[in-house]
Amino acid sequence: MSETNVTNNRSDKVIRAMTNDGAFRVITALTTETVRGAIASQGAKGAVASRFGELVTGAILIREAMSPNLRVQSILKGAGGKGSIVADAHPDGTNRGLVGFSGETGEDMTGGKGALLKMMRTLPNGALHQGIVEVSFEGPDGGISGALMAYMQHSEQIVSTIAVATLLQGDEVVAAGGYIVELLPEVERGPLMIMTQRLEDFPKLDDLLHKGDLTPHALTEDLLYGMPYTLLAESDLRYACHCSELRVLSSLATLPRSDIEDLLRDNKVLEITCDYCRKEYGIQPSQLKALLMAS
Known about the structure:
The protein has a 6-stranded mixed β-sheet with strand order 7-6-3-4-5-11. Strands 8-9-2-1-10 form a 5-stranded antiparallel β-sheet, with helices on both faces. By secondary structure, it is an alpha+beta fold. Mean pLDDT is about 90; it is low at about 1-10. Helices cover about 35% and strands about 30% of the residues. A hairpin with a 4-residue loop joins strand 1 (about 15-20) and strand 2 (about 25-30).
């Protein structure tokens, strides 16, 4: 992977923990630099940037919850199919995304009605598991956090509390992160009542991130205060794109022979830009001819 495609980041992490009585599983993540890299690559601004950052963090949390060793992609589609935002979370801790419109447009993505969230995750057999829920940006349980909770309940049959947030100062990402508290089948009435009350009284994630010193471990400690738990896993996160010249050539190789011949007609360098990271690739005519020889 090209070093120019990766943000140098060592601070972003995601951790998984479970209470020793098997009542709850908690996943917490700090995603500031990861979200910052994704937003910068797409040039997103304003409310669109905030939603985009939340979607990236949400994809990371769902991957850790359901497919820690496999890929998860989340897609937010605007009302009537107008525009889309994509977050792509990989098991190696790399993450990237796409914004299907530019600037501060996309009102149907940030406050309108009729938006949809589509979650896709790879299964161990290579098949795709998909779930679609409607997104409402109204009320305290709306937004990306509410849509992720609806997805977990309806598509994965897991009752959970989820919060994701991206703090912006102007166009700069100040902080980003999120958490999931999952209710496990072994939970008993006592711990359930305690956790229910705790989550009702728990500070807003935006306020916790605003303090500037939040870590996944500290967030887990706060969520599970007084409950003995075991740390299950800890992983680094970063923004990165998986594009490469080899991947571009492999994609071109799937084109019909006639299409490759059309690309060669002017005998000029074919310029292709990665939609995810905006890196430009120049494919030489000799490389295109090699594809014809191989076909």
